[in-house]
Amino acid sequence: MNLLELDRVGKSYHRGGWFGKGERVPAVVEVTLTIPESSSIGLIGRSGAGKSTLGRIILGLEQPDSGTIRYRGKKMQTFTGGDWREFRREVQVVFQNALGSVNPRWPAMDIIAEPLRNFDDLTDSQLRRKIDFLLAMVGLEPSDADKYPHQFSGGQLQRICIARALALQPRLVILDEAVSSLDMLIQAQALRLLRRLQQQTGIAYLFVSHDIRIVAGFCDQVAVMHQGRITSTATDLSEAKEADDPILRQLARAVLPAWPEGWTHAENP
Question: Residue 196: what are its φ and ψ, rounded to 5°?
Answer without folding.
Answer: -65, -40
